[in-house]
Design goal:
It is built from 16 helices and 15 strands. The protein is of the alpha/beta class. Bound molecules: pyridoxal-5'-phosphate (PLP). Pfam families: Aminotran_3.
């Protein structure tokens, strides 16, 4: 029996990433408020938010400083834009702050309102760049099976998940996918992580050669795959991939939408994993999820190309009404100030060994095949048989059931395709709360067994 609010919900809303054929029976979980790492439903029941919302509420809920920053900016100047040379101080200050923080040489920052728009911008800028450089055939974009880059037409084309392609008429032509760097699931028997990484790099090289290096513009990757399964890469992976990209003059775009701003115990995932991207996309934790904001870093060669295009074509024909929204920028500035002042990133590095120890201990559980992560992110895989790694029939929905049991235990974690469960709590979670999270997850696994 659905509550009044839940009934109104199913009568009126379409929910992203929800099975619309079964949703009317299950109904929504209606959340009403949050405090620290806890959220409360409309009946006042608390849940430990083990997913930081959607991998984003790094500073937890009810952070009054962020509320004040938003409120102050709303009162002062709730909206202006960056079109036609108009500007405002939060955007200028935030661009300066981000330029300083970027782990790669950065000339400028371009703001969007979401991760999808940031990645769409990356594709368009790559195409525009290669037109400016007089190599109009160099346009193909390579990403990975199980990579997640968003839902707009270009970013969904880069995404490597069936739900984003089947019957959506995607990916668009010119978007190619290489193998997923998930050692547990895709390595051959006895293959070391290094050998697996080399095989994936060889596969990338073979694809570039088959397509023709003159046609391949960019490779995009998340440092740790998020929605594809919370998958940490095998050792040596990015080093070997980087060598291939360098060989064929293929731009490297890091999708830092989840890993940016501390998730792996470094400001950006690229630093933790030794990546040297040409550009990176960010969103989510840049505002701790309190306001929609994303963006991309622009390196000097790309910036020069954009300027040369304007000299030829006139206006830079890209950007949305809310690119650099002043309230979102003000909240991002305060968020980054708090990250620095409260040593949030260092705090993640300090808490990560405890988090990872509790996570990897789950691999002992009879239905867990793998439990692995980096920093404060982890993924586990539910299996029917640990030795053979055989999975349950997907129709049985075993991992989804485990996530529902977790919710009944007062813990929010996320079910992902392939019977994977993601854990990605707010960065401000305390060691005791980490214990509560894993204790509740064990109860959920026991009930699922
Ligand atoms: N890139 C990554 C790595 C993501 O995890 C996401 C969202 O989860 C996106 C891009 C898309 O971001 P958004 O949902 O803000 O469009």
């Amino acid at each position: 029996m659905l509550s009044n609010l839940a009934t109104r919900d199913v009568e009126t809303l379409i929910h992203p990433y929800t099975n619309l054929s079964t949703f009317r029976e299950t109904g929504p979980l209606v959340l009403e408020r949050g405090h620290g790492v806890w959220v409360y439903d409309s009946d006042g029941r608390p849940y430990l938010e083990g997913m930081a919302g959607l991998w984003c509420t790094a500073l937890g809920y009810s952070n009054e400083e962020l509320v004040e920053a938003a409120s102050e900016q709303m009162s002062r100047l709730p909206f202006t834009h960056l079109f036609s040379g108009r500007s405002h101080d939060p955007a200028i200050e935030l661009a300066e702050t981000l330029k300083e923080l970027m782990p790669i040489p950065t000339s400028k920052i371009f703001f969007t309102s979401s991760g999808s728009e940031a990645n769409d911008t990356q594709v368009k800028l790559t195409w525009y760049l290669n037109n400016a450089l007089g190599r109009p055939a160099k346009k193909k974009i390579i990403s990975r099976i199980k990579g997640y880059h968003g839902v707009t037409v270009a970013s969904a084309s880069m995404t490597g998940l069936p739900a984003n392609h089947a019957d959506w008429d995607l990916p668009l032509p010119g978007f190619l996918h290489v193998g997923c760097p998930h050692h547990y699931r895709f390595a051959e028997a006895g293959e070391t992580e290094e050998a697996f990484s080399q095989r994936l790099a060889d596969e990338l090289e073979a694809l570039i050669l088959r397509e023709g290096p003159d046609t391949v513009a960019a490779f995009v990757a998340e440092p740790v795959m998020g929605a594809g399964g919370a998958i940490a890469p095998p050792s040596g992976y990015f080093e070997k991939i980087q060598a291939v990209l360098d060989r064929y003059d293929v731009r490297f775009i890091a999708d830092e939408v989840i890993c940016g701003f501390g998730r792996l115990g470094t400001w950006f995932g690229s630093e933790a994993l030794g990546m040297r991207p040409d550009s990176l996309s960010f969103a989510k934790a840049v505002t701790s999820g309190y306001m929609p904001l994303g963006g991309v870093s622009i390196d000097e060669p790309l910036y020069k190309a954009l300027v040369s295009q304007s000299a030829k074509l006139g206006t830079f024909g890209h950007g949305t009404t809310y690119s650099g929204h002043p309230v979102a920028c003000a909240v991002a500035l305060k968020t980054i100030e708090i990250y620095k002042r409260d040593r949030i990133v260092e705090g993640v590095a300090e808490k990560a060994p405890h988090f990872q120890a509790r996570l990897s201990a789950l691999a002992e559980h009879p239905i867990v095949g793998e439990a692995r992560g980096i920093g404060l992110i982890g993924g586990l895989e539910i299996v029917a048989d640990k030795n053979s790694k055989r999975q349950y029939d997907p129709k049985a929905g075993v991992a989804a059931r485990c996530v529902a049991f977790a919710q009944a235990e007062g813990l929010i974690v996320r079910f992902l395709a392939g019977d994977r469960i993601a854990v990605c709590p707010p960065l401000v979670i305390s060691p005791d709360e980490i214990d509560t999270l894993f204790d509740r997850l064990i109860c959920a696994l026991d009930r699922t067994e």
